[in-house]
TrEMBL record:
It comes from the Bacteria. It comes from Streptomyces anulatus (Streptomyces chrysomallus). Keywords: Membrane, Signal, Transmembrane, Transmembrane helix. This is YcnI family protein. Residues 181-217 are annotated as: Disordered. The chain crosses the membrane at residues 224-243. Residues 27-175 form the YncI copper-binding domain. Residues 206-217 have a biased composition (Low complexity). Residues 1-26 form the signal peptide. Residues 181-205 have a biased composition (Basic and acidic residues).
Length: 248
């Protein structure tokens, strides 16, 4: 009996841990496709799980950091969702490729049109962004999730360094070390492609030169062979004529 009570208490405790940990692990988050290098460009996925059993998510608002504005923010179309982009004036203009940027995207809102995030499902909302700041290790995107029963969940609490995760943490994007070209793998791939193309061109040139040289040698050999045959025929004819003259 005592053993059964201990087992029952342990099971209840474990269930309590799962119930407490469940919602915290299912918050709105952001993850890069590949790496998010300082000073470069990246594609981000905002992952939105549905936490409610009796309601569907019908709206997501993502606020972009005002302390590190991004000059380029381009969301990817998501079937069944309408996208609204909000821009704000910058206190300090950005200089991008010699052009002055006076406003930047401050918020992107996805609203369910023919789709929604039903209980037990999640949805990803991709956004291409850049250039990422070089003077920051992370970016915080405060998000607001709305359900079809009018419930609103604000994922806006910034995690403290080395502290426990808050109840409603904001999505945080960790930045990696800056790439030399600020464009990451795409530029490296392009360079490799150019190197391969140059190598192929050089190899093709050498092959053409070898073929041309071989062809020239073959032509010379054939010409000399024909000349030899002609000279031989001429010698035979001369010998025949000389023999006839002696006989006469």
């Amino acid at each position: 009996m005592k053993l059964s009570r201990i087992a029952l208490a342990g099971g209840v405790a474990a269930s309590t841990v799962l119930l407490i940990a469940g919602p915290a692990a299912a918050h709105v988050s952001v993850q890069p496709v590949g790496e998010a290098a300082k000073g470069g460009y990246a594609t981000l996925n905002f992952k939105v799980p549905n936490e409610r059993d009796q309601a569907s998510t019908v709206k997501l608002e993502v606020n972009f950091p005002a302390d590190h504005p991004l000059s380029s923010v381009t969301p990817q179309a998501v079937p069944g969702w309408k996208i609204d982009i909000t821009k704000s004036k910058l206190d300090k203009p950005l200089e991008v490729h010699g052009k002055k940027i006076t406003e930047a995207v401050s918020k992107v809102t996805w609203t369910a049109d023919e789709g929604e995030i039903a209980p037990g499902y999640f949805q990803q909302f991709p956004v291409s962004v850049g250039a990422l700041p070089e003077d920051a290790d992370q970016l915080v995107f405060k998000a607001i999730q709305t359900y079809d029963n009018k419930e609103v969940v604000r994922w806006i609490e910034e995690p403290a360094a080395g502290g426990e995760e808050p109840d409603s943490p904001a999505p945080v994007l960790k930045l990696t070390a800056a790439a030399e070209d600020h464009h990451g793998g795409a530029a490296d791939d392009a360079k490799k492609a150019d190197d391969h193309k140059a190598a192929d061109t050089e190899a093709s040139s050498k092959k053409s030169s070898t073929v041309a040289s071989s062809s020239s040698s073959d032509t010379t050999a054939r010409t000399l062979g024909v000349i030899g045959i002609v000279i031989g025929i001429g010698g035979i004819a001369f010998g025949v004529l000389a023999g006839r003259r002696r006989s006469a």
